[in-house]
Structure formats: C-alpha cells, structure tokens
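dumping this here before i forget
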Amino acid sequence: MVELGLYFDGRNPSQWGQPWGRHYSYLLDLCYTADVLGAHSLWFTEHHAYDDGYLPQPLMFAMAAAARTERIRIGTSVLILPLRRPVEVAEQAAVLDIVSGGRLELGVGAGYVASEYDLYGVDFHGRGSATLRGIEELRQLWRGGVITPSPLQPEIPIWAGVSGPRSLHRVGELGEGLLRLGRQFLPPYLDGIQSSGNGAEPRMTGPANVFLSDDPDRDWPLIRPHLEYQWGAYNKADSRLTGGGAFDVDEFRSTGLTAGSMMGFLVATPEQAAAQLRELISDTPARTVYIWATLPGLPEQLAYRNVELAATRLAPLLKASV
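structure:
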C-alpha cells in the first residue's frame, strides 16, 4: 500500500507576498486541512538565505505543524544534516517526536548549494560522507540513551536523500530508508542490505512534482506563473534540477513524470496523476509519495482544492494500486 503526503517549501515571493505571520498561518491551515481530510503525511524542505524566505528551519516548522494536527505524520525532506551537529538534531527530533505523539519521519540529505555551507562555515565538499556519518551518529545517540528525553518511537524512521552508488549502498548497509523514487536507485541500495545481513526491509519514499486540479487546462493559466517562478528559481540555483540549460515552464509541464519524479511537472486530475505515479513506483518498495501542497504565491483556493483532491481522490487510488 502506497500512502500520499504533501510537500511544503514555505516560499513567500515579493510579487505575491503576504505578511510572514499571515503566510505561515495559511500554510499551517493547509496542514490542518490535510490532517482533517486524512492525508498520510506532511513534508518540509529547506534552503537558506533565499530572497523569498524559503523555509530555513524545517524542524521548527514541523513542531508548529505537529501542534496544529492530531494524526498526520510529520516529515522533513530534506533536513540538510551536515549543517548541524548530530546531537542537536537528535535532541530536537526527540522533542518533536514526543510533542507529535510519535509521528516524526526524519528525511536527511547533503543539499547542493555551496553558499549555504559558506553561511554555516561548513565544508561543502565533504557533505556526502558527513551525511552518512551523521545518520550513524543519530542512531547511536538515540539507542545509547544519551538523548533525554528519549523519542517516543522506539526507532524514528530515517530517510536518506542520497543518489551516488556508494552512498546508496551504505544506506542499505545501515538499514535505513531511501528518500528517492525510481527503480534506478534500487540495485546498490538492495545490495547494501543484502551484503550487510541486517535483515532490513527495503523502503523508499520521496517527492513527485504533481499538482492536482479538476480541470488542468482551465486552471493552467492561473497555475503557470507560480510554477514558472518556483522552478525558474530552482533552475538558477542548479540547472541540473530541471534537466540543464534554459528553463521552459511549458516544456517542463509537458514532460510530466516521464523523465522521473522531479525532472518535469505534472498538472493533472487525480486519475491522471495516479496513472503516472503508478508507473513511476511500480516494482519498487515505495511506502509514501508526496506532492506539492501549494506553489509560491498561488491563489489560496487552488491550493485548498489541491489538498482536498489529494486526500480524498488521489490517496485512495494509490492505496488501491498495490
């Protein structure tokens, strides 16, 4: 059974900007709505010193979301682990797990923006190995009783956002979850599990560029400028995220999920989205897929409808597909 979650970046661009208190209150209301409607999980991502206020501290926002919700799982995707001391992350995660009633899903990764490492005074080039060491340290801290109070969950789920063969193999050896969607990531990951003999059950989760509408062609003129802003900004940070070169939002939309979960963008009905998501995750140990809750500056009625369609129509289709 594959569950459905919702993904937040917290952007508040000036051309559509709201006062920050109003903006965060609105995002938390989307979280509350998703919880009431029965969505599986919320996932908060991270960047630093962006002009639009991209969410810089996902664990802090996750704490606020935990206080506004009752049942929905609370995740990070990703927390840039090398920017922080593992003991600090372990303590914050433990407190969040307790406050949320044991709902934390901790997704960690290395990030890809060198200026963010400069801001924190951390070595950018060693970020991959630092991420893997950090995952090991988190487990040791929680299991060793060093962190007090202890997390409510006996084992907080850790999801590792890695992509290189050696890193994928190491995550398998550690028995952690893989924060990637796609069959191409599986061979080294599964080999790591097998070679270690740890008996871990393979598991994947990850984001997919999807936004839902009752009538995608009707709503596309309203959605287009906000999608163009979001992914144009990502393209400026690293053009590899959009396939390289100049960014064309219409071509990005036309690609959908055919090139991978994040290499195009699908604006679709729940039924159309379910068909492409099934193809994306078939023959994989995917546990959860999460799609965008909103886009930067998007009219709020479109975001609320997206969340409603995700929880009430797309989620049952994904559950029934496996």
